[in-house]
Amino acid sequence: MNLTLKIWRQKDANSEGKMVDYPISGIEGDMSFLEMLDVLNEQLINKGEEPVVFDHDCREGICGSCSLQINGEPHGPDRLVTTCQLHMRMFNDGDTIFIEPFRAKAFPVIKDLMVDRSAFDRIQQAGGYVSVNTSGNTIDANAIPIEKENADDAFAAATCIGCGACVAACKNASAMLFTSAKVSQYALLPQGQVEATDRVLAMVKQMDDEGFGNCTNTGACEIECPKGISLENIARMNREYLSASLKG
Description:
Elements (H helix, E strand, L loop, with lengths): L2 E7 L8 E7 L8 H14 L21 E3 L2 E2 L21 E6 L7 E3 L2 E2 L2 H10 L20 H11 L6 H5 L6 H12 L8 H14 L10 H5 L7 H16 L1
């Protein structure tokens, strides 16, 4: 395929960015989107030009590092895949592809297509964990019976990889889906009940402090989420938050 790539280039968070055109040829349909960018960067390096900076790690749809806005959609036109799982067969010969970083106040651009998503780490650190007694008197995790439905829902919430597609898809740049997945992961399990009140209050406060917007109720986050995290988690977090607020 012969393609025209319109890529956002930006030196750093304080610099003004712009779209730059890059023609590219010889792209095969079985290539992943990141492999296509690898080909482009190899060509740029061979010409003595600066390669395009983009985030990636495992390239297996697990780590959540690859975060690209492709033709206006987080992770591109396919569904339930990350950018590294998107294949070039989703595009046609002669296409023009717009490639931008995830756009959000809480995700400042580091360079080009790479953004700083450490805001998610701080939300997680505010309460997305359980305290465990490691003094030698630990309890086997399998010793507490858990209803299968609750276990399944907890596992489903835990599949969130923190890529930020939900934020990029939301017109308010809301992190409600991410935060609610991390809250639900523990709210559904008995091990998470000890700190349940403090957890939801702390994580929601940190989410607001980071500058994320509120939920728009449009459902774009669930549609664009590569792991299909359900909007039901947002409803659960709202219930948890209301209950915790009344207790407080």
